[in-house]
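Researcher: First entry.
Model:
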Amino acid sequence: MKTPYEDKKTVRKGLIPQRIGLLLAISFTIYGCGGGGGGGSSTSTVTQQTFTLTVTKSGTGNGTVTSSPAGINCTSGSCTASFNSGTQITLTASPSTGSTFAGWSEDCAGSASSTTVTMTANKSCTATFNVQTFTIIGIARFEKKDLNQTGLTDTIVITPIRSANVEVFRDADETVAATSDTDSNGNFSIEVPQSEIGSPLRVRVIARQVNSTLNVRVVDALDETVFPNLITGALYAVTSGVVTGPQSDVQITATVDDATGRRAGAFNIFDAFIRATDFIETVDPIAVFPPIVFRFKIGVDGGTDFSWDTVNIPEGVAGRIRIGDKPSEDTNDFDDSVILHEIGHYMQANFSKKFFQAGPHSHGQRLDPRPAFGEGWATFFAQAVLGHPIFINSGSPFSDVFSVETFNTQVMARTYESEDATSQVLWDLFDTGGLSTDGDTLALGFASIWNNGFIPLRSPTVRFVYLHSFLDKLKEGGLINATDINNNFCDTLGVCDPPFNDRFTPSSPAQFPQFVIAPSATLIGNVDCQCYVNAGLGNTILADASDFWRLELNTAGTLTVQIVVNYPLLDNLDLYIFEDDEGGELARSATTSGNESISIFLNPGVYMIQVNGVSTSSILGPEIPYSIVTVFSP
C-alpha cells in the first residue's frame, strides 16, 4: 500500500490524524525550505492501525476454518489474528467427514462455505458444524384405563405420552446415540448421527423429564433401602422394535399389562405430574419445580404418601411420592385424584409452608389443624387440576367417591380441623366458569388462591399454617372479607354463631394454637390417647390426641418444659417444641417414660409446645390428665 508521502506531496508536521489501535511504525523524511541558514531536513514516524478477527467453532460436528490472507486456521474452540484496517478477509469453512457446515453468525452471515468480512473494527465470526444425521419420527402413547364413579372400567383411552425423554440406543450394547423429547401430542423427531445407519437401533421413551424447570421420574420400586441403585436402573420405559435408518412412523405404546409391571400406569402417573405443572404454569409462568421421584410398584400395599426426606433420597431430590397398587384390591396408578392429591402435598412443601405429621386420616375426623389444612389443600388441588369436584379413589369391593362441592354433614366434620371442610372452602373460593352448583357467591379462580393465599403463607410472620391463616392472607390481599366467609361457609365450618371477626378468628372453637402459656408457669390439661403404638392402632394426628400451647418470648434464654402424667394406666405423653411450620420441630421428648422434659436455648420469637397422647398399653381413648411446667431463664 502506498503512503501519502510516496507521492512526494508536501506534508506539514502536526497535521497527521491521531488514531487509537495497534500501530505499525513507518519511518520517512520530510524535505523543506530553510530560512536564513539554508535548507534542512527532519525524520518522523507515522502508524498503520490493525484490528483483531476472532473465529469460533460451534455445533455438534467438526471442521476447519481458514482465512485469506493467512492468519486464521481454526480446528477447535476459538482462534484470533490481527489484520490491517480496511483489509478484506475471506473465511472458508471445511466440514470434516461425517459433518456438515450449517452457516455463519455474528459479524459473518449466510450458509455458503465462504464469506468475507472487512476489518473496519474488531470482528467476530462463528462457524457452526453439525454431525450428519438421519431422522427417526414417531409417536408415543399409553393405554389409560377409564374411571367413573363406580371405579375403574374396562374402557381403554389411548393417551399421548407428553414431555417425556426419548433415547435412540444401540440394540447390541444400549449405548445412547441420540436424545429428544416428546411434544404435547406425544410426537417425537430425533436426529441420529449418520454413522449409525445400518446399526440395529431402538427408540426408548422414558417416564422421566429433566430440563431447566422440571426434574421428575417414575421408578419401579418402593423399598427405601435400595432406592439409590434405582435412579437409572429401574426407570419405567417403553421401547420400539429395531430401527436401522430413517423412519417416519415409529409407534410406541405402553400397555396395561400386569405381567410386565403395568407400564401404562407408570406413564399415567408421569402424565399427572406434567398436567399439574402445566396447570401451575398458567398462573405462575416462572415456576421451577424441584426434583421429585415417584416410586410405583404393582402387587404391593395399595397406599400412597408423600415424603420430604433428603437423607434417603439421593441426587438432591426434593421429595418422593410412593404409589402402591394391588389390582385386586386398591388400584392407584389410574386414580388421577389420588395421584394429584400427593402432588398437592409436593406443591405445598415447595411453594408454600410445609407441615407433614404422618398418620392415617379419613372422612369425619377432626385433625390437628395443620395436617387438616395440608390434606384439604391436596384434595382441592387435585380437583382444581382435573377441573371437576368429584374425587374418585377406586378400590375393591368399594370405591371412595365424594364431591368437594357438596358438603355431607353425615360423614364430614364441620370445623377447620376437618380436611373435608377445608377442601370444600378452598373449592368454593375457586369455582369459576360454571363449576359452582351450591350457590356460593365467591369465584376467585386459581391464580388468586395460588398467588394471594397459598404462596404468601411462606411469610415468616405466618407461624402455624391452617385454614384461617390462609384466609387471612386472602383478606390481606383485599380478595375477601369477614362477611364473605360468614355468608358462604357458616354451614361448612360450623362457626357462624358467633360469627368470624375481622381476623377470621372464630370464637368457637378456640384459635389455633388453642392455649397460651407464660414463659414460667404451671398449667393442667388433658388429651385423648388415640394411638396404641404396640398394635399400630389409633391416630396421633387427631385433634383430641394433642394439646397445643402458644409461647411468645421477648428475650433469649433457656426454656425448660416438663409434663407430668396423672393417669395410672396410660403413662406416656410425648412432648414437642416447634418454632413454626417452616422451621419445623426444634426438640422432642418422645420416650416411653411418663414424665418427660425438654431444655433448650431459644431466641425471641413465637413457639408452640405440643403435648401428644401415645399409649403403650392396650387401652384406647380415655382422657389423660397431665400437668405442664415451663421455666424460662433469660
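Researcher: Second entry.
Model:
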Amino acid sequence: MNDRKGVIWAYWGHEPMDHLRRMGNNSESIFSLGECAEPWYIRLHSEEMIEKAAKASINTIYTHFFKGFGLEHEKEEMEKTCELTRIAHKYNIKVLGYCQLGSLYYETAIDEIPDLKSMARINQDGGIDTWGGAYYRWSPCFNSKLFKKYMESVIEYGVEHVKLDGFHFDNSYNQACYCENCQQEFRDFLKKSFTNPREVFGITSFKNVRIPPYRQLSEVHDPLYIWWLEYRRQLCAKTHNELFSFVKAVSNDKAEVLHNPAFPRKGRTVNEIAFEPSLSPDKCDFIFAENGNFIQIKDKKLVSQVEAFKLGQKFGYKVFDSSWPLDLNGKHRNPETYEEIMRFICQSMIFGGLCGSQWIARSTKKGDMARIDIPGQLDILSNIFKYFINNLELYDENTKPYNNIKLLYYPLNCMASPEKGFKTFSDVSEKLASEGVPFSLATEEDMLKLNEEQVLILPELKYLTENLYQKVIEIAKKGCKILIIGDFGIYNENVRERDLSRILPELEKEKNIFLVNSKSNIDGEWINILRKLVFENTVIVEPCGMMVETAKDENNKLLIHILNPYNNEPLNDVNIHISGFYIKGKTKNIKLYTPESIECKSYEISYNNVDISLTGLKTMVTIALE
C-alpha cells in the first residue's frame, strides 16, 4: 500500500467527450450532461479550476485517460489530459488517469487491434459478452495475454508521455467467461488442486469438464461450482497483480494504483464479479467503494460505508468512498447540505479512508458551471480538508485500530453462501457501527493470536473447513470468547454436509462459545450478549446511535473517534465511558479535536475507567487520551 500521507482527492471528469457522445441519454441524471457537456469539459481543463482545487487543499484528482476506444483513437483527448497534468503539477496536485478494464469499444478499437475478438469474453451462449448490455462495448477476458499486453502499452504511454502519477482502473472485476482458453485454464487449475478427482467430484479426470453455467445462487451445493468460483477469485487477483505490478515497474514504483471492482455492493457478490478483497495485491494503493451506502439515517436505520473501510483496514488499501445520496425518485443526486458533506468526509477520516469529493467538479448543467462555483460548497470542503491536514497524526496510516471485538471475514463462506453468509457479515458490520461498537475484521490466520480479553464474532458460517472448526475449539479453550450467529459448520469446503451430531455437542460444552440462532440474529439480540461479554472492557457513548472507532497513534496514544450520523442539530449532553482493556491505568489527561466547536463539561480518570461529558457535538470529535 502507498504510504503517501494526507491524500485529498476529487473527481475531475473521468470520461472523455467521445464517451459522453456515444452513450447518449437514456434518462435525465447527474451523469448525463447533454448540451452542457462540452463547455463544462473545456473549463475543467483550465488553470482557473485547478487553482481553485489547490486553494481548497485538494492534492489528487482523477481524470480521463483511456476509456476503451483504443489508444490511437484516444490520443487527441490524451493530449488534453497531458496539459491538465502539467498544470496540476504546477500546483502540486497529482493526477490519476482513468483506465477502463471492463470494456473495449469495438467500433473504433478494432481498427488498431484486428484480433480484438480474441480478447473478448464469451458468454454461456457462445456470443461476445458486453459491458452492462451496451452492444458496442465488448468485455475483455482476463485470461487473454493479448489484452494484458495491450493494457501494458496503454499504461506505459500514460506514464512516459502523459506523465500521469497513477491510474484509476475502472470496472476491474471479472465476470464469467466461457472461451476455450478459460475452459482449459479451469481444467488445469483443477488438476493442480486435486490428485484424485473421484474423491470429491465422482469423476476419474478433468479432461472433459466444462465451466458450469453462472447462476445467482443463494447457496452453492455443487463441488465443481465452488471450485470454479475459487478459480475465478484467483484469476482476478492474478490479473490485478500483473497489471498493478507493471504500473509500479514502469514508473520506478512512483505511480499509484486505484481501482473500482464494484465492491462491496448489494447484489454484487464475489460469485458474480470474482473480486475478493483478501487477495488484493500489495501493489494496490486505493479501492473505490462505489455503492448505495452514502452515510445517512434511512427508515430509522444507519446506512454507512463502514464495511468497506474495515475491509480496507484489514487487507492493506485505502478506500475512496464514491457513494451518492438519492433523491425522492430514487435517482443519484449530489450532496447539498453542510450536514451531508460533513458526515461523508468525517466518516472517511475516522475510519481510515481517503478524504475527498466525487461531486465538487461535476457539472451543474448550466453552461460551463461546476459545483465548485456554488456559493459555500467549496468553503465547507476547504475547512474540513484543512482540519484534516492540520491534524494528520490522528487519522493517517500510522494510526491503527485498537479494540477487543473481531468480526471474522471468511472468503469460502462468502462465496458459498452469498445470500445468508455474506449478507449476514455485512449486516453484522452495519449493526456494530450503528450501536457504536468499535471492531476490526479478523481472518482465519489471525485466530490463534486472539486471547481472553477478546471476542470473535462468527456470522452465519454454514461453510468452513475442518481446520477452521478446530481453531474455533482451540481458541475457546484458551479463553477467547466466541459469539456464533446463525448456522455454523453445516458444510465443508467441498460443500459436503457434516455430521452435526459431532459438532453441536462439542460447541455446547465450551463455556466460552455462545450460540445465537438465526431468528435472534434477525432481531439483533446478539448485540446484548456481546455487550455483556465486554462489559468490563468497553467504550460506551450516550446517546445511543453514535458511531465509534478506537485507534492508537504511532506514540501508542489511545484515540476515540465519535461520529454523529444524526447531525442536524448539536447534541448538548454526550457521555463517554471507557474502561478496562482500553485504559489500564495509563491515562493522565484528555484532549479534544474537532472541525466544529465542542466543550468538555467534565471528565474523571481512575485506574480502570475514564468518564467524559461533552456538550455541543454536531458531527464528529476525536478524544485523545494522554
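Model: Note on the second entry: The mean pLDDT is 94.
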